[in-house]
UniProtKB/TrEMBL annotation:
Coiled-coil stretches noted in the UniProt entry, renumbered to this chain: none
Biased composition (Polar residues): 11-20
Compositionally biased spans, kind Basic and acidic residues: 1-10
UniProt record similarity statement: Belongs to the lin-52 family.
Species whose genome carries this gene: Daphnia magna
Protein name: Protein lin-52
Region (Disordered) residue spans: 1-22
Transmembrane spans: none
InterPro entries: DREAM_LIN52 (IPR018737)
Amino acid sequence: MSKTKMKAETSSDLEQSLLSTEKLDRASPDIWPERNYPGIEYSVIEPTRSPEIPALPQSIIPQELDKHDYTLIGRYSKLTAQELIVEVKQLQNLAYQLGLEEAKEMTRGKSVN
């Protein structure tokens, strides 16, 4: 007997052994019980609802934008995603450097009193 024929018979035997002849009565409450098990999450069954996005407080939203703000918005809107990531990293580095300088100045101010 060839190897392919033996493989085909083996896979056929395997498929036959995996078949189930049990008939499920889907209307039966014993087979499909109601959700009466405490602690079981049913998030797979029920679609998750997206949380409502809270509105920003008015104090955070700038009331007036000047010409420089509009220039920055225009410049950032023309950047690609990668360019925008580079720009954000540069801003983070600048903020870090300013933080270090401020810490040095505060330390110097405390020592001078």
